[in-house]
Amino acid sequence: MPETKIGTSETLLEELRGWVELETPTTDPAAINRLIDKAEAELRAVGAVVERIPGRDGFGDQLMAKTPEGFAKGNGKPVLVSGHLDTVWDHGTLEKTIPFRVEGEKAFGPGIYDMKAGSFFAFHALREMLRQKVRPMSPITLLLTSDEEVGSPTSRALIEREALASCAVLIPEPAGGPDKCAVTARKGVGRFVVTARGVSAHAGGNWPDGASAVVTLARLITQIHALVDLPGGTTTNCAPVWGGTRPNVIAAEAGCEVDFRVATAADGARIEAAIKAMAGPQPEGTTVEITGGMNRPPLEEGPGNLALYAKARAIAAGIGYDLPKQHRGGGSDGNFTAALGIPTLDGLGCSGAGAHAIFEHVLWRELAPRCETLCGLMETLSEV
Hints:
Blueprint: H1 9-20, H2 29-45, E1 49-53, E2 62-66, E3 79-84, H3 93-96, E4 101-103, E5 106-108, H4 112-131, E6 140-145, H5 156-164, E7 168-170, E8 182-186, E9 188-197, H6 213-225, E10 235-243, E11 253-262, H7 265-276, E12 280-281, E13 287-296, H8 303-319, E14 325-328, H9 334-339, E15 344-345, E16 352-353, E17 361-363, H10 367-380
Helix pairs in contact: 1-4, 4-10, 8-10
GO molecular function, one term: carboxypeptidase activity
Keywords: Carboxypeptidase, Hydrolase, Metal-binding, Protease, Zinc
Organism: Teichococcus deserti
C-alpha cells in the first residue's frame, strides 16, 4: 500500500467524471487546454513546479509538473509519468453517443478508458502526494500531453527529452484485456500513404490508351497483405482505399493508407524497406509514390521493463489483487521511451474495455486499487 491516501473509488469516480465531461478531441486545442487549465491550477496550488509548453501546429498545450527541489528523499534521476488528455471522440459524443453513466460495475464515457482514468490517476497521485507531504524516493515528473491519438507529433520530443533524464517511465494507459494486465511490450507502428498514378482514357473506345492506377494499386495491396506474419507479430492493413472517377473512365489516380505493426525494430526496418521498394515505375505503365514509415518503434520487453513489472505486481498483491502482464498490439508513448533504453512499464491505468468504441467504460470499483498501485510505484522507485 502506498503511504499516500488515495481515497475511495466513489470519490475518484466523482472527480474523474468532471474530466470526462470536458470533451477533449485531439482536433480542438482550446478544449484540451481547458482541461490542462484545471490540472495546472490544482497542481500549482499544492506546490508543484509547473511548466506549460504552448501548443503548435493546431494541437493543444503540454503540461509538465515536477515535485519541488528537495521534496523527494533522494536527489537522483526522476521517475517520469506520462499520460495524454486528448481523445478520439468529437464534440457531442457525450450528449449523443456515450453519455457519462454508471451501470453496475461499469462507468461509461468518451475517453474514460483511453485514457482519462489513467491520466487522472497520475495527476491525483502527484497532487495528493504533495498535499499530504508524502516524500517519494525519487523526484517525480508528470507529463500530460495533447496529441497522442494522432502519433504525438508535437509532444514526442518533450517525452523523449524527459525520459532520457529519468530513471524509469510509467505509462498509465488502460490495463490490458480481460485479465486486466500491465503492459511490458507493445508492437511498433508504421503508416504509409500509397499513391498510384496512371493515364485516363475512355474505358470503351480508347482502352489501349489508358493505364489504370486502380489495377496497379490492387496489385500492390495484395503484395502488402502478403507481408502479414501472425506468428512473428507482423500485420498490415490497407484502408481506406480510393481511386477513379467513373465506371467508364480508366483511373488516372488511386491510393490507400497502410497501417503496419511489428514486434521488433528489425522487423520494422524490413517491412518499411519492402513497402518502399514498391514505389516507382510499374509494369502496367503507371507510377507509384509511397510516403511515410515507422511512427512508433516497438516497446520490446527487456530486463528493465520486467524489473518494473515485478515491483508493480508486488505492490498490487499487497493491495489485494493480481497484476498479470501482457504484450499489446497498439502503440503508446511508452514505445518512444523504451526505444531509448529507459525502463518503461505501461498499462498502469484502470481496467475496463472499449477503447475507441461506443461501449467505452472502466470498472469503476477498481479505480482506487489501480491508482494505489501507480502511486506506490511513484513513491518507491529510485535510481539504481
